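EI: anyone free to look at a 304-residue chain?
SC: sure, send it
EI:
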Amino acid sequence: MASSMRRGGIFGALFHKSSGKAPGTPLNTSVLVFISLFIISAALLMFSNLNLVFNAKNIGLSIFSGIRGGINELSSFVSRTVLSVKELADLRREHAELLKQLERYEELQHSSAEIYQENIRLRDQLGFAQTLRYRYIPAQISGRDPNNLFSALVINKGSVAGVADNMSVVAWQNGTQALVGKVIYTGAFESLIMPVFDINSQISARLSVSRLEGIIEGQGNPESPLLMRFVPRRAMNEINFGDIIISSGMGGVYPAGINIGRVSRVTVLEFESTLEIEVMPMLDYSRLEYVFVIEAETNKEGQE
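SC: here you go
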């Protein structure tokens, strides 16, 4: 047995034992095939296990790579979303600030336009003031009498500025000087004016061309025409549409020669010896802002 193991090794001993052949007999072909197949199978099994390990490793790497990529994409998306929200909030804040700036610029532009127009009006009023033959007190319409909303006007000058009752008030509008009315109440810093359209107003007047005289009365509404009464009926043919009517100076309240309005209609009253003339005021009282309270006629050198 020992010599058999020395000659053929373990396999040879096994072969000789199983075959019953004496030691020293050549190996059977089937045994060689078996051994070859065993070796090949072992090699294939080894290589197969190795490929399986490599495939598992590759699959694991792929899975982890995919997870890592997904996490990176997710974190990138979240970061971009957070940044987008922050940028949107910043844009909204900037938009709101720009809107506020635009409103301020529009207000400034509007104020600038108002100041420009105000300067034009003031220069216009100043030019008119320099041509007045009277001592005058410039004033601004500041309101209306709440007890007489459609008639009495309030100005921002009173006795402290030299205004007194029964002073005449004139204005300059659209290149025309015209009579506003007269002061009927004087306070320390404000005064009340009765305009020519007041129902209690009566003004001695005349037509500037024919020099016919009459009395101008108001109808209580600035939109209604004034009425000139007591003009002789025989003067019907001497009166034309658009003739200017001025103050006559009779009675000493209103200075002579101040424009009042224009003839808009002439009515012949039945059983009357006089005419009734409708007169449209030269002033648009809804746009009246500045007036001049006149004290007395004077020469240019004595003008204040």
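EI: Residues 56 and 130 are 108 Å apart (CA to CA).
SC: 👍
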